């Protein structure tokens, strides 16, 4: 066995993202990466995903083909929501993904928007 | 599986109610994707303190929550989150209620007492609500006004019948909720 000081830390893939984030970085503010934030890969960035941890790569692969909510990323990867938030925060920070923050109340409670919700639901009835 | 790339706005509604009332069924009726689930840890403070660490005793539990999605127009998508109605899930309620259009509260008319903790949470988080009475056999048995009275609901809160298995009936209940929210805007 090598001296602890010299040996690079071997972390299980599960621990890596937590370790990376914990290294002086703040956990993502809850609301920025809450479940209705929308995520997609930045164009031309999927190649850069090769250096990521398996979980981060899984997220990156998933959002390379289109736009999904944070909730869907968690649902489709079957990773815990908390981990997915941390991974996405990290991927956004290094410029691999684009994140559209959740719709603020002032926007979601706008009358025109609410009418669009009603109209969209009414299409369901017409079918 | 993916959203229309033109989608810019995601809105959400909480589908709440006691276990077995029909939340999963309701979400499945309206969702355009096969409903998915998220797994997350919640921290529960248990009573007393751990003598050794002098830290509050906490336990973590994994909670699975199902949700669905419906695209309303090329720029607008709606997410429906099935949300359990117990006090111990209030951490999740905090995030879920932020910016939400409101809560559709599903109630079983034969088990109305189970709705009270749910109604308390909806009120606590200031969510606009509509009550959907899921009769489960498609035949409303009770007068909606009787249900309103039993639940001590003020007149302005809509109470409707809903067949959670039926897409149109489910959509109607949601339209009622959104129109109710519009009526409360100044
Ligand atoms: N006949 C009938 N059964 C229903 C209806 N809604 C739910 N159920 C059944 O009631 C049970 C509980 O429903 P579920 O949606 O899982 O409730 P949840 O615990 O609130 O998510 C399931 O076996 C459903 O098939 C309904 O409108 N009609
Ligand atoms: Mg359920």
From TrEMBL, chain A:
InterPro entries membership: DUF742
PANTHER family: DUF742 DOMAIN-CONTAINING PROTEIN (PTHR36221:SF1)
Protein name from the UniProt record: DUF742 domain-containing protein
Automatic annotation (TrEMBL), chain B:
Record protein name field: ATP-binding protein
UniProt cross-references to Gene3D superfamilies, sorted A to Z: P-loop containing nucleotide triphosphate hydrolases (3.40.50.300)
SUPFAM superfamilies recorded: P-loop containing nucleoside triphosphate hydrolases
Pfam family, one: ATP_bind_1
Domain of life: Bacteria
Transmembrane domains' residue ranges: none
Lineage: Bacteria, Bacillati, Actinomycetota, Actinomycetes, Kitasatosporales
Keywords from the UniProt entry: ATP-binding, GTP-binding, Hydrolase, Nucleotide-binding
């Amino acid at each position: 066995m090598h001296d602890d000081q010299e040996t690079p830390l071997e972390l299980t893939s599960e621990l890596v993202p937590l370790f990376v984030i914990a290294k002086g970085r703040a956990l993502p503010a809850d609301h920025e990466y809450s479940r209705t934030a929308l995520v997609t890969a930045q164009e031309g960035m999927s190649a850069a995903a090769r250096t990521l941890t398996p979980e981060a790569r899984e997220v990156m692969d998933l959002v390379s083909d289109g736009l999904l909510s944070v909730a869907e990323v968690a649902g489709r990867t079957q990773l815990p929501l908390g981990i997915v938030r941390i991974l996405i925060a990290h991927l956004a920070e290094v410029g691999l993904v684009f994140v559209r923050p959740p719709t603020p109340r002032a926007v979601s409670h706008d009358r025109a928007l609410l009418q669009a919700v009603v109209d969209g639901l009414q299409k369901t009835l017409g079918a | 599986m993916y959203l229309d790339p033109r989608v810019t706005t995601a809105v959400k509604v909480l589908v709440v109610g006691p276990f077995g009332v029909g939340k999963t069924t309701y979400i499945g009726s309206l969702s355009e994707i096969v409903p998915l689930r998220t797994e997350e840890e919640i921290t529960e403070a248990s009573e007393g303190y751990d003598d050794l660490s002098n830290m509050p005793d906490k336990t973590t539990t994994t909670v699975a929550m199902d949700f669905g999605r419906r695209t309303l127009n090329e720029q607008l998508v709606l997410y429906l989150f099935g949300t359990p109605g117990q006090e111990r899930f209030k951490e999740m309620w905090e995030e879920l209620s932020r910016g939400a259009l409101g809560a559709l509260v599903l109630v079983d008319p034969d088990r109305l007492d189970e709705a009270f903790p749910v109604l308390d949470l909806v009120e606590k988080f200031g969510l606009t609500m509509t009550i959907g009475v899921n009769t489960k056999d498609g035949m409303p048995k009770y007068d909606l006004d009787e249900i309103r009275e039993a639940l001590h609901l003020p007149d302005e809160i809509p109470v409707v019948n809903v067949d959670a298995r039926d897409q149109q009936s489910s959509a109607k209940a949601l339209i009622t909720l959104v129109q109710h929210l519009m009526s409360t805007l100044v």
